[in-house]
Amino acid sequence: MSPEAGSRDRQRLARAALTWLAEPRDPHLAGLLGMCEPDEVLAAIRGGRLPAQCRDDSPGRVPGTTQALRRWQLRLRDLPDDDTITAACRDGIRLLCPDDAEWPAGLDDLGQERPYALWLRGSGDLSYGSVGSVSVVGSRAATGYGAYVGGELAAGLAGHGWQIVSGGAYGIDAAAHRGALAAGGRTVALLACGVDRPYPAGHDSLFASIAVGGLVASEWPPGSRPTRLRFLIRNSAIAALTQGTVVVEAGQRSGALNTARHAARLGRPLMAVPGPVTSAQSAGCHQIIRDLGAALVTSTADILNVLSGTPEPDQAGR
C-alpha cells in the first residue's frame, strides 16, 4: 500500500470513529476538523489533549472545545475497535467521506454543519443528488388525501428523472418513497439512526426495496438509535442534499416544517401543496406559503416549473 493510500485509509477510519464520538452539527468538532486532520482529532480525543494548533488560545478555535473534548472522551467506552469499525462496511454498507467523488456538493452548503461522513446502504450514487433530486416530506399522520398526492407527485417527478429524497417515516415520507419506486425511479431515505436499524421497524421491507437501486443513508453509525434531536438534525441534511423541497401535508408542529425552514435558509426552492382550510394537517403548508414564500404547487408540472432554474437530471442515467 502506498503512503498516500495508507493516509487516506487512516483519515476514513478516523471519520468513521468520529461519527460514534460526536453528534452531527457539533461546532467544536467542526472547528477542529477545519484545522486538523481527522486522525489528529481522534488521537487528541483518545489522548485527552488537543493538538497545539487547536488549543484554547489558537486562532479560529471555537470557545469551549476543551470541554467538548471531555464530552467526547466519555463516549470512548462505546467506540468499537478499528477492526470492528472496518467490518461495519459489509452487506452493502459503506462510508462516504467529504473527499470522495460521490460526495454531494449540496451538503457543503451547510458550511461547518456539514456531515463528518455519511453511512450508506444500497447500490445508488449519492452524487446524483447534487444535480437531480428533490425532497418530498410531510406529516407522519397523513390523511388519505396527503398520502395519495405525495405518492403521485413523487411518481411523476421520478418519471422525469428526479431522485426522491425523504426521511423514511410513516405517512408522507413512505408515500413519496413508494411513489418513486412504483415509477421505477431512484429514492433515498435519510434516517436519524443507523442504516442497519430500520426505523420505523414496519418499514424494514421498504428500506430493503429502496436499497436495491437507491440508498438508505445516515450521519450516525450502524447500531445507532433514533432520538427526537436526531430527527431535527437529519432534516437539515435532507434540505441540503436536494435541489428543492416539497411539503405535501404538515400540521403546525410537524417536523416537515423544520425541513422547510432549512430549505429556505439554504436558498433552495421551497414548495407546498395546499389542503382544505378546515384540515389541521394542512395548516403547516398554508403557513409556509404565507410566511416563508413557499410556491403553491398542485401537480408535477408545477414542481418542474419551480425547479426549472435548477440543473435538470440526466434521464439517460435512470
General description of the model:
With 318 residues, the protein is an alpha/beta fold. It has 2 domains: 3-87, no CATH class; 105-317, Rossmann fold, CATH 3.40.50.450. The protein is 42% helix and 11% strand. The chain contains 13 helices and 9 strands. It has helices at residues 3-21, 27-35, 38-47, 65-73, 82-87, 129-132, 144-159, 172-182, 204-213, 228-241, 256-265, 283-291, 300-306; strands spanning 93-96, 118-122, 133-137, 163-166, 187-191, 215-218, 245-247, 270-272, 295-296. It has a 9-stranded mixed beta sheet with strand order 1-2-6-5-4-3-7-8-9, with helices on both faces. The chain is globular, with a radius of gyration of 20 Å.
Short summary:
With 318 residues, this protein is of the alpha/beta class. It has helices spanning 3-21, 27-35, 38-47, 65-73, 82-87, 129-132, 144-159, 172-182, 204-213, 228-241, 256-265, 283-291, 300-306, and strands spanning 93-96, 118-122, 133-137, 163-166, 187-191, 215-218, 245-247, 270-272, 295-296.
Large-scale geometry:
globular
Second-tier CATH architecture of the largest domain: 3-Layer(aba) Sandwich
| Fraction of residues in helix | 40-55%
Residue-averaged pLDDT, rounded? 92
What labels describe this entry?
13 helices; 9 strands; single chain; Rossmann fold; 2 domains; globular; alpha/beta; nine-stranded mixed beta sheet; 318 residues
Secondary structure layout plus pairing:
Layout: H1 3-21, H2 27-35, H3 38-47, H4 65-73, H5 82-87, E1 93-96, E2 118-122, H6 129-132, E3 133-137, H7 144-159, E4 163-166, H8 172-182, E5 187-191, H9 204-213, E6 215-218, H10 228-241, E7 245-247, H11 256-265, E8 270-272, H12 283-291, E9 295-296, H13 300-306
Helix pairs in contact: 1-3, 7-8, 10-11
